[in-house]
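Record type: ASSEMBLY
Status: queued
Input:
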Amino acid sequence: METDGNVPHVQAKFFTKQKGISVPDSPFSIPYNVGVIELSSLINSLLSQDEAESRGLVNFDFLVDGEFLREPLNQFLQRKEASTESVIDIEYLERQPAPEPEDALVHDDWVAALAASQDYILTGCYDNVVRVWNTEGDLLMTIPGHSGPVKCLAWLHNEDGVAQKTFVTGSHDETLLVWRWNQQTNSLDCVHSCRGHAGSVDTVTVSPNGQRFCTGSWDKLLKIWSASLDHSADADDDEAPQKKKKKTDGQKLPSRVPLLTLSGHSEGVSSALWVNEDVVATASWDHTIRLWDLHHGIQKSAITGAKVFLDLSICPETQLMLAASADRHVRLYDHRITDGASVKSTFTSHTAWVSSVSWSPCHPNQFISGSYDAILKLWDTRSPKAPLYDMTGHEDKILAVDWSMPQYMLSGGADNHLKIFSYQAREAQIPS
Amino acid sequence: EATLDSNEEDDNSDSEESQYSGLSEDESSGEDDSEDEILEWESDDDEEEEEEEEEEDGVMQDIEVNGLESKSNEIDSSDEEDIRNTIGNVPLEWYKEFDHIGYDLMGKKIGKPAKSDELDKFLDRMDNPDYWRTVEDRKTGQKVVLSDKDAEAIKRFRNGQYTDPSYDPYAPWVEFFTNEVMEHPVKATPPHKRSFIPSLTEKKKVSQYVHAMKMGWMKPMKPLPSEEEEQDPRPSYYQLWTSDSDFTRRFKHHIPAPKLKLPGHAESYNPPAEYLLTEEEELAWKDQEPEDRRRNFIPQKFSSLRLVPAFKRFVNERFERCLDLYLCPRQRKMRMNVNPEDLIPKLPKPRELQPFPTVQSLVYRGHSAVVRCLTASLDGQWMASGSDDGTVKVWEVSTARCMKTFTLGHAVKRIAWNPNSSVCLLAVAVEKQVLLLNPGLGDRLIISHTDSLLQSALNSRQDPDESETGKKIPADWHECSAEEKANGLRIKISHAKNVTHVSWHSKGDYFVSLMPEGQSQSVFIHQLSRIRSQIPFSKSKGLVQSVLFHPTRPFLFVATQRYIRVYNLLKQELSKKLTSSCKWISSMAIHPGGDNLIIGSYDCRLSWFDLDLSTKPYQTLRHQKKAIRNVCFHRSYPLFASCSDDASVVVCHGRVYNDLLQNPLIVPVKVLRGHEETKGQLGVTDCHFHPTQPWIFSAGADHTVRLFT
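Status: finished
Output:
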């Protein structure tokens, strides 16, 4: 690295948590206004001195103070008001490879809901149809059953070896349908319907142990349902509604009533999430995120925001919540902080409403967000100013995103497409 | 005293002194120095050495100064002896009769200098440029020429200044010790332990005093000032404004007399011809009363100024002028100095009034013609819009998805969602009909409930209505055919003329429709539960523009082109008539509290009426450049908006206070632009707030509906 005569220098020490690319632990004097590219080439030259030449040139990213370096170092330090006299510790790691557009699945109508698991993708559309796809892009099944647009769906049981899989779908027609799908015979039957909501069912979430699921609706209510397929267990509960149903519909579809109904929101519930086995978090149009204690059936706490919340996602490891709201920002909340500002950071890069967010299943720092500006963005929480990657391709609003499968990021939108982006997470970054 | 050249060569003391006096800064130090030197000289016997020293010193620069110095010495100290004249301190008059004036050190006589007579003095004065500074030494009789420095010193001394010009008495004082605590003190010794301990001697002294007071040995001092008061019996107050009489006040508030008019061309001795009166004019002037005359003289022309006679009326005119000044009261005009900025009311900044819509968030595309009207459902999940393409579209608010499209065939003029939450019904004004439309969205129970409600109302109506058909009502209720029912239509109400407006009562049972061309039968009130219509007015009051129900009380607002009439429906009387300042009212909206009303007009004005305050507008806003098409209030936030043909929506903060004494606060907060300006006349045709969020929908001539959040 050449030294310019006029530019002041700072002392920096490089370290990494990744194996096999470590450089000497001695401080280097680097120009004050160095950028990421120069730093990356510095690390590369250091590595080529130390290690085998076989390793090609690798792009690195640099973390200073737990935040990604995205601008020249001097600007970064000025913004952080950090001292330039002490030795700066810079962590470096191999840059994430860009996500590759893998496939685009064409639907007949807007894709409003997505759920992926174990190589199968469920999509719910505005044409009232649920579709089952595999990751190769083959349409396995088209399921008409709802009489309104399908707004939410979730896998109930989807074990790896078991051929029989179940999922639940919720719709504008105020019902939820529980489906049993045999993967090998590709046969499907509707187990039962869940009735009780008096508004469109906008969100469904399955408890960690798969025994229950929770739905939120425009009728401001939150309902907990049993996920068991065994009807003998709750035959008593079912009896009355079943009789009524027979009279009206004449259809032999057993229906269920909720185990628990929780009210408290003053507007429609837009998103619900299980925090743990006894706690559900909901986001609503009334500008609040609420936590519900299911064991006692009461509201535990509430976080008040300034805008309508559209989606919620919770990191399984750090328990931090991401909320997408009816503005351009994605906000990171810590629901364990009960007083004061619970917004930990704000991610701003979208130009329209952010409709959906999803944490990475394997990386505690990464998440994706889909917005009405038709761009899917991959973020790292350590880089709040700019996303890691922008994924374009959609031609209209993105309505749903999913990142349940570590290698695939999914987004569905108002252009009738489901886009699949493949992504190789760095092995070394996956915490053990 | 003696200059060097005039003195003897061996006069050493003089040279010695001269060396020091040059260095001396002020007189006292000079004196000391010279004294020392004299002592030195007296102890010194060897004259030759002194001579040598003098020669070594070379040029004596300050010799004249020395002369002055020594002279001052003589004055200052009487002990001082003049060493060149040894007669001592005796008056010189004693030597008047001798030829000498004393003896020098060697005992020789010092001769009297030749006395110059007056002529010599005069010549000297003329010839000698230094005459003015030549003084005579009385002791030796020698003439001494003062140097420039001496002259300057004398001058300064006379003026009361320091004689040395280089001395600055006001030089900045350099403090040797400062009172500030210094970081590095001059003396770093810590304070002694003693300084922290109360003094023992003081304690002893105090205890002595205390003891003395207890024993009565010591008495406190008597207060002194009482004696002074006794001494001065005069009161210590006096009248401050004794001189403040009417006379002085007149001078203080002096009003200058008005100035006399300057003479013009007519007064000239040689006026231009047009100022001269013709004979008829002269006759007319003479006929007039002296008070009526425009001029009190006749302009006259003279060939030269010399021929101008004396002005006969001079004294009269002076007298009249004096009368004027004396009799005419003059008044000082009070001029108010008001800062124009103080007149602007203090309004809060828009940022403090958030939330209000600021950015365009969603665009609802799908219509193929101008979107005329829109309305939002009560819970804010749906929004319906009607367009010139003959369709009503119902949209999902959050995603801008068109959920349903109802084709009605004709341009939709007005659409209104039923404000009753248990009914799902849209009233649509299309051509000559008002259609009741069930969009079939939302809760299925409510949808079916709506249908059954309408059906039961229709069924119960049949009998009474047919019996009393004698009274002709030009609004017919029809049940829709099965085909139309599949399209969502439920009931048609046919009118005689085109219907332009429809709006619901807040309970959702009554609604009012407007037929501007219907003359006296322009306003209809329809009741949904009893399937009937009535005409509230028998006479036409003008072209009705808009009608509205009061949200809580049985009032109906009817806006004609310039007036808004408020009718009490129970008493069936006109309760108020509001006068708008605008020319043609286009639309009207009422605050959910019911005490405030806004109207929009085609002449770009938006007027706010406080119904309790006045029948005139409380405030009129002109923020839009083209005709205002529609105005609306937010249901829960203190917001109102107007949309206009310049493709903008202006959102204002309008807070109404419960305190009746406090006027509403109206602050324009945001101009929302998003709709494209079309070539036609129309811009934004309708705007409507979201029922629960601080969002606003706007319907534009660019075939779109937009949501601003």
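Annotation: Chain B touches chain A through 18 residues (CB under 8 Å).
Annotation: The longest helix of chain B spans residues 444-467.
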